[in-house]
Every structure is written in C-alpha cells, then in structure tokens.
Amino acid sequence: MASRPMEEVPIMQQPTKGPTEGPDEDALRFMKLLENANQPCYEGCKHFSKLSAIVHLYHMKCLHGWTNKSFTMLLQFLLDFLPSNAKLPKDCYEARKIIKDLGWSYEKIHACPKDCILYWKENANLEACPNYNRLRWKSNESKANHMKWHAKGHANHKLLRHPTDSEAWKSFDSKYIKFSSEPRNVRLRLAADGFNSYGNMSSTHSWSTKGTLACPPSNYDSQSRWLKYGRIFSYIGHRRFLDNDHKFCKQKQSFDGHVDMRSAPIMNIVDYIIGILLNLDGKTKDNLKAHQDLKDTGIRSELHLEKVGNDKTRMPHACYHMNASEKDGFLQVLKDVRVPNGYSSNISCCVKLKECKISGMKSYDNHILMQQLFLIAIRGSLPPEVSRPLIGLSYFFREICSKVLNVDKLGALEKRIAVTLCKLERIFSPSFFTIMVHLVMHLFSKAKIAGQVHYCWMYLIERYLSRLKSYVYNKTYPEGSITEGYIAEKCLAFCSHYFKSVETAFNRPVRNVKESMGAVVSITLDSNSWIQAHLYVLFNCEEITPFRDVHIAEIKVDFPFHVTDDVIQKQHMEKFCA
Prior knowledge:
Distance between the termini: 37 Å
Order of helices and strands: HHHHHHEHHEEHHEEHEEHHEHHHHHHHH
Radius of gyration: 33 Å
C-alpha cells in the first residue's frame, strides 16, 4: 500500500496552566491526535505514522466489511510481522479508541449565505443574519414545485408512471378529502419487512409462502394440490383466468384430466426455471418424485416412470430436457455477457461452465436475467414449443417492471400471461408450479392498486438492512452498534479522500466502460490539458452563466463606452479564470 512520505505536523505548545486552568478536553484530544500523527509506525518508517497506519487499516475494514475478529487477527499478525517497536494497537477495540477522536459524530450548523456568521452558540436561535439582515430560512422553489407536482404538474392520463396513478392513491384521496386537498401534505410509503438482528435470516416476521392458503388474492378459492411424493403444494389451474370460450378450457389430456370452466377468484421464479432446464441437483423440480406424482394424479402418461429390469426405473426424456451441448451453449451465452458498470453484477462470474450451473446471483440480477438475457440464451437450446412460452414469461416481466404502465393494456396483458401459464402447465410437471409461480397471475391487479412494481420491491431495503445488521457485534445494544458502525464508515469514507495511491470507494476502477468497443485505453492528462478542460467547462456550463454575466458587467464598467464587444469578450476570456 503506497502512500506519500510522512510529513512533520507542527506540534502545538500546551498553554501555560494557571492555578486552576488547563487545556480543555477538546484540546487534549487534538494534541493526542497530533502526537500520534508525528509518531512513526515503527522506527525507520518513512511513509506511515501511527495514526495514518491505523486509519488506512480501519478504512479497509469498513470498505470490505471485515468483522472485528478478523481485524484483530490482522493487527496481531502485523505486530508479529513488523519490527518489535511497531506502534500498532493489539486489537480492534484499541484501534477504535485511538481514532475515535477524529470525530465519529456530527452536528449540522447553519451558516449565512455570505459566510459571515455561523448559527452556533450565542447565534443558534437567530432568525436572520445580524450583518446583512438576510433571513436564515430560504424557500426552495424548485423543491416546492416537485413536492406539489403530483397535484399541479401531473397530467391526467391512463398511464401508470407515478404512485398518484394507482388505485390505492385515489382511494386514499376519496377517503381523506381534507388531507388530500392540500397538495403540500407529504405521503410516505413504509416498508413492513421483518428486521431480524444479528444476521438471523428467520422469516418469523415475514409473509408465509407455504400451505394451502398461501395465495392471498385467491383466498379460500386457491387451486392448490398436495403432491404425495414431492411433498409440496402445487398451484395449477390457471385456465380459470382465461375466457370461457378459450380452447384450453375444454382440453383434458393436456392438463389435469378435467374440463375447467370456473371463473377467476376475487414470487423467486428464475431459480425454478434455471433449475429445471439445467437439471440442477437440489433445485430442479423435475425429479423422480415429480414423475411419481404424475402417475399418482393420472396425467402425462408419456412422462411416467419406465421400468428397466426388475428393480430399476428410468425417467423418460421430456421436451424441456437439454443435452450436454445445449447446456454448454446456453451457459456460454451468459458467460460472454458484458454489461456497463452499475447495470448489474458481473453475471459471467455466476456462470460455472464445468459444474454446468448458475449460482451466486442477487435478486436484481435475476430481474436482469429474466427480462433481458434469458430470451436470448434459450433460443438455440430449446425447441420452439418450450422456448416460446418462456420468452412470453420473460416479456411479461419486462412489461410489468417498466416505468410506465398503460392501464388500458393491462387487461390484455393479464389474459396473455394466463395463456402463457397454461402453456407452461402443458409442458412442466405440477411440482414446478409452486406459490411463487402462481403469484405471477396476480401481479397486474397489484400494479393497478399499488402502482409500478419497482416501488414495491423489497430487495433494495433488505440489502440495506443486511448492511445495518452487519454492524451489530454487541447483542446487548444492537441500536448502539448500528449507530457506531454507520458513523465509523462515514467518517473513514471522508478520511479516504486524503489517501494517495490507495483504492477507495471513490476511485475504484469500473468493470466495463459503457459503450466501449475493442481495447480500452486510460489517458492521464497533463497540466495544460487539465487547464483546457477546466476552461471549456467554465465557458460552456449553463450553471456558470450568471457568474460570467457578472464578470462581463464589471469589465464594461472599467472601459469607455466606445469599446467594442470583441475587446470586452477578449478581456473576459483572459481574466475570468485568472
């Protein structure tokens, strides 16, 4: 880890103590920091002081999420590795005691726009600047307009592009007329997800996805069936969401052996599809028990287990089974995917060609795979009668997750997904249709009520809750641990601005350069190029226009009236950035 040679920090002389006076606590803490900043990490060390070494190490701890135990083990190793006179702490607790005086707390203090006073101490309660009589509080017209946009700037149309277009928002307005009549009133959407401390992933406080009645929209009219051998509930019967004159409603052999003329009742699906297509152990729903359930329910006789000899059985080949070359082609397409930095995680790293599986994807990666990449990868690996319904499912997720939803088209899309699920029922075994697959049928009705789907996603909140829970090391005081960990991370992120030649959260190299073709070349600008770039921004940025106008007006005051605009512009170009 490179750093600049350690520079001497001026040592402050302690003030002369009177009979009852001495340095206050803030002065003592500051002088202690100066002492640690001037003390080499070990005798002969020219690049790190005791303080800078600890700050660098603790910054890496925060950046990479090291535990207190792992950080203590690293410090103990360094004490054994470095010379015996190294001035490093022996554990994480001592390291925090040394650097806590950098300021692991903050206080927001208002200042006059003219930078003449701080609203602090004796000025804390002032409402206006005593020097310029300018009010302390300033209304922000831009933010005020944004806060009222839903009532005054939002067009009345049949597109779902904002929560105000949802039925839930309109229902609230009609119920609480007095509140909704004031556009400045603020509405908050709360996330009611269970918070389990200490990294506990129990679902005690979360919604259950098991049992006969696991589908809330269907209530007691859910089409669930217990599979005797698979020992799971299967949710089939999506024909009731079709029109009564649809050809699927009267087909028996392709479905469960019955005609279904019922009316409709008043989701991780990607894992299921990948597991069954790649036949992944422990994840596929197409296993021996699934074929036994087919025989037990009396459907799909062509997929019943076949006896081979006296004591062996064989699973017949299904249309959705991939051979080795088809699996390689499917995975190779995903392995070769390159996306811009920030678009998703590196999906190619999740593809394991030798093991023939995909693992380690996050929730958002599943969305990218299902909506954008899946329909490309399966085209050459599955027959059309299988790939088309799966592509239709991919199209459905892309539509339902879009930023704008057309209310008039939601009904047609809802009928289309019902047909798609019925086609999938003709292909896959009942064990595939768990509650997560069945709930796809109800997403459009939920979108009408609550608005766009991305406003209801929980994985963003769950990911941040996981980050907060990682701060908890003292189970007696979880709130204090979270507060200390959060402030420490923000404090070290601020300190990292002053690190040289060290990777921080602000200078990490991007994984892929957006819209890059061929080799990517990094160019370091010299001082003249930096100046030219700086001048270009100052003379072409709209935000700087008021300052340029003020400068030109000042130039005109110093010149006689007969001077041409070209002369004034030349003076402006030469002196504006001087």
